[in-house]
Amino acid sequence: MEKQSQREVKKEQWKEMAKVWASYLPPAKPSKNEIKFWEKELKKLPIKKGISFKALVLGSTPEFRDLLSKYKVDTTFVDINSDSARAMTSLLKLPKNPREKFVLSDWLHMPFAKNSFDLVLSDSAQDNIKYSEFKPFFKNIFSILKPKGLWFFGAVNVKKKDLLTFEQYINLYKKSPKIFKDQRNYWLNFFRLCYNSEFYDKKTKTYNFKKVNNKIKELIKDGVLPKKAIKDIGFGLDYQQVLISEQDFKKIIKKYFEVDDEYQDKSHLAMKIKWTAILKPKK
Ligand SMILES: C[S@@+](CC[C@H](N)C(=O)[O-])C[C@H]1O[C@@H](n2cnc3c(N)ncnc32)[C@H](O)[C@@H]1O
């Protein structure tokens, strides 16, 4: 029962999330350069008409779906929340892919047979599931990918050397609030706080955005920060996400996947907190 109510709360969060998705900039979603990279890689695959080729998108990411639509790839996108899927569909830039279908499902219990897909695409999907479920999640994707299949994989990845203390974060804002007006800088710096013990639960590997908000609110109450700081450097939703490093990902996936290639978008400093890789199942 408790589990079910937690899932409902999550659903509400995603409705809100979908509304603001359009205003989000990378690294919160795939960047234009990342999509260009994926396009280049996609074109190397046998996606031409007449050949069976099946792609699976984890979530409703409009950027991936537009890319697959451009080449009319047989696509299935899977999302646990139909409202979110509908909202994301409204954000597609290209006409809807006639070869696309939606499956309402949890990524941990997808109704697909072994070796069903040639390609899986996901951007920060695993951030939304419990860390304790990472192993079954990766095992599941391994299982539904064909032996020669690939996974276009994106994850937030903050390196230890880039971390900020809360004090450094606040000082950065006080010194130059303008920096945070560029949303990409905001994401970069907000994520640079992630592994602070006040905000990060080491057991569940979860970064709690609300705890950052609470500390900002305290500083506003004490007159240290202006009222607008909560909008400038806080996060509007009660949200948590699972975050681990690239090294930890590599350790977890080792049993099932090898890294075939990696890509770093250098168009903006904020992209340094992304790990973008092509994963190949060890089959
Ligand atoms: C921030 S996105 C992350 C995934 C991807 N980047 C996307 O754009 O869809 C969150 C989306 O993933 C969906 N989602 C979250 N947890 C899920 C799960 N366990 N199974 C299936 N979909 C899930 C949400 O409903 C939402 O549409």
Order of helices and strands: HHEHEHEEHEHHEEHHEHEE
Q: What is the averaged pLDDT score?
A: 93
Number of helices: 10
Q: What proportion of the residues is helical, as a percent range? A: 25-40%
Strand order of the largest sheet: 3-2-1-4-5-10-9
CATH class of the largest domain: Alpha Beta
CATH architecture of the largest domain: 3-Layer(aba) Sandwich
Tell me about the largest β-sheet. Answer: 7 strands, mixed
> Approximately how much beta-strand content do the residues carry?
15-25%
Low-confidence stretches: 1-7
> What is the domain total for the residues?
2
Under CATH, the homologous superfamily of the largest domain reads Vaccinia Virus protein VP39
N- to C-terminal distance: 38 Å
Bound molecules: S-adenosylmethionine
Shape: globular
**Which structural class matches the secondary elements?**
alpha/beta
Q: Could you give the count of β-strands?
A: 10
Whole-angstrom Rg: 19 Å
CATH topology of the largest domain: Rossmann fold
Describe the structure.
Strands 3-2-1-4-5-10-9 form a seven-stranded mixed β-sheet, sandwiched between helices. With about 280 residues, it is of the alpha/beta class. The two termini are about 40 Å apart. It contains ten helices and ten strands. The chain binds S-adenosylmethionine. S-adenosylmethionine binds near residues 59, 60 and 84.
